[in-house]
Design goal:
Chain lengths: ~160, ~160
Amino acid sequence: MNHHSEAGLPQFMVPGWSGFIGEHTFLAEEIVEFAKAYDPQPFHIDAQAARASLFGSLCASGWHTASMWMRKQRDYTQKYLAERAKNGLPAAEFGPSPGFENLKWPKPVYAGDTIRYFNQTTACRKSRSRPGWHIMSARSSGKNQHDELVLTFESAVMLKYPV
Amino acid sequence: MNHHSEAGLPQFMVPGWSGFIGEHTFLAEEIVEFAKAYDPQPFHIDAQAARASLFGSLCASGWHTASMWMRKQRDYTQKYLAERAKNGLPAAEFGPSPGFENLKWPKPVYAGDTIRYFNQTTACRKSRSRPGWHIMSARSSGKNQHDELVLTFESAVMLKYPV
């Protein structure tokens, strides 16, 4: 596996790059814990009520599955950048996000589902207003163990990298 | 305060309705707790590292401020519907969301900031595919104690209501 592009840029900053960034199994206990704090709807906190709902079974808050993408994105990029650092290559520093678009949850994430998260870099350009910073755009998704999409969105993020 | 529109619909289902749905003060401890689980970037988990970052001070994950909107939305609608139920008016049951658009975090939410959340109903139509269900669209926002926008997005959600 190449840990840097020919230009020395982190792979994930190169438009066209796509990859698996990590997976997570959503257990009932953590689904309920997140939902009690942030999204206490019956189908997220009560298995019996969930069975009577349109969802049919206990499922995770959409904010939970989206937040877990963020965690996998962070873990993936940090591990990758740490590997590069061993070869003396500079780190990329993540900053604010200009925003997200088309955030969708095509299927519920049920208790016990394992979600695999994927990123695809669609663009990366230098910021005009902030020298040294880049604006990276990506398409991201999550798929369950049946290969069904459960999360899709497009994002942008600011990245500091010395080129 | 009117707890129902003249047609008996919950206020928040009537296009044009807008209102304050709740507020939350983001303390450093909970900012760090959420971020350690879902968004462990230096400026969300370490006050000293945050001061050296583009943000300048410890601030909440965007997923945290968005998830808190969900909590306030839930609490607001349930309290409102419970009041209506005292007058024998039916409940509206929330279901899946067709998606969110233009999710933006125009300013950071710093430790100690109090965010006030607002919703505005922009459309509400009957679902063609699911009798008894409606699709409600809204614009939502969060503002800090300086009246600066810190969160904006457009959303849609399915709602079961007997009309």
